[in-house]
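Can you make up a polypeptide sequence alongside its tokenized fold?
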Amino acid sequence: MASYRDQAVVLRTHKLGEADRIITMLTPNHGLVRAVAKGVRRTASKFGARLEPFSHIDVMCFHGRSLDTITQVESIALYAPALSGELSSYQAASIMVETAAQLTEVEASAHQFHLLAGGLKALAGGLAPTGLIRDSYLLRALALSGWALNYDSCVVCGSRADLAYFSVAHGGVLCANCHKPGAVAVTKEVMLLLRALSRGDWQQTVNATQGEANQAAAIVAAHVKWQLERGLKSYSTVMH
């Protein structure tokens, strides 16, 4: 039976039998992996804590017919303790890993793995406000899957003037002349914030007001809901 070794971010876990768990992981070289961790629920398990959701690990597995089997785990970074200590951080991390799972179900990439690992690190380290890190990750992850929003010119006529509305259904900004039903009015500041978040440009987000961050978050939430047809269980509300 062939084995392989890779890095991974643990996305979720499910109980299997009395002592085992099924671990769903995103890896840079093997995509989305589902593997059994045998005996991991026993108190004496030597690597149970390393397989908690949000963990960044080095893992060795054996290939199986339907599920692989985890044989060795080393920690790279365990983010669960930091992220579980505050509800907003935990919810943001849950949204991020659920999004990653959906986006990589059919086709994964190393870019998606590194973006998620970096996003969880930023979240656990408090690099920026929780909501901004979450929304930056979501915009960039969706863009990697081909759903980038357009912030620079009207998606209907191409004009760069009077960009006053935003429509997730149309994929970006609209000028005043091309205003469509369902589009929301946005200020230049919110537009700049969305652009900065889509680039991970934290220096351009520091002066954003709470109101601007809230409106940007609502647009990102609508974008996620529009593109991910199944929706997100973790995204029942938008946290700020």
In short: The longest strand covers residues 3-16.
